[in-house]
């Protein structure tokens, strides 16, 4: 079993910054992708940013230029530095890890609330 524990959410004013962290533990395949998704009520969960164990990054258009994803492979931890936050960034942010080792495996964190006030 794999567990993901997120931290770093909270309330911030527009233009401010937050840093999310997510630590994964358990039986984790070394070649994997870790990412951050977000969801607001009534909408589908959407990708914010993802990073492979090799360091390749992918960002949603809404995150480009403002958010930076990074990871520490030794700690199985992924970070999301969010700058220039906007009210529309308000959502529950979920950490994800997935990989393929003959089968597809995906695990989610419990989510952390990010609220950006105008």
3D architecture notes:
The protein is mainly β. It is 0% helix and 58% strand. The chain is built from no helices and eleven strands. It has strands at 2-7, 10-13, 18-26, 33-39, 46-52, 57-59, 67-72, 77-82, 91-100, 104-108, 112-117. The strands form two sheets. Strands 2, 4, 5, 6, 9, 10 and 11 form a seven-stranded mixed β-sheet that branches. A four-stranded antiparallel β-sheet has the order 1-3-8-7, with no helix packed on it. Strand 9 (91-100) and strand 10 (104-108) form a beta hairpin. The protein is globular, with a radius of gyration of 14 Å. The N and C termini lie far apart (40 Å). The model has no long low-confidence stretch (mean pLDDT 97).
Q: Can you give me a brief rundown of this structure?
A:
The protein is mainly β and 118 residues long.
Task: Give the helix/strand layout.
Blueprint: E1 2-7, E2 10-13, E3 18-26, E4 33-39, E5 46-52, E6 57-59, E7 67-72, E8 77-82, E9 91-100, E10 104-108, E11 112-117
Parallel strand pairs: 2-11
Antiparallel strand pairs: 1-3, 3-8, 4-5, 4-9, 5-6, 7-8, 9-10, 9-11
């Amino acid at each position: 079993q794999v567990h993901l524990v997120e931290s770093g959410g909270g309330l911030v004013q527009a233009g401010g910054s937050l840093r999310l962290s997510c630590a994964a533990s358990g039986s984790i395949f070394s070649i994997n992708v870790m990412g951050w998704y977000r969801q607001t009520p009534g909408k589908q969960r959407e990708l914010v940013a993802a990073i492979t164990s090799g360091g390749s990054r992918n960002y949603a258009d809404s995150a480009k230029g403002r958010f930076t994803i990074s990871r520490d492979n030794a700690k199985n931890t992924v970070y999301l530095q969010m700058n220039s936050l906007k009210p529309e960034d308000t959502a529950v942010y979920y950490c994800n890890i997935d990989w393929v080792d003959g089968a597809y495996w995906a695990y989610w964190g419990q989510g952390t609330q990010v609220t950006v006030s105008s």
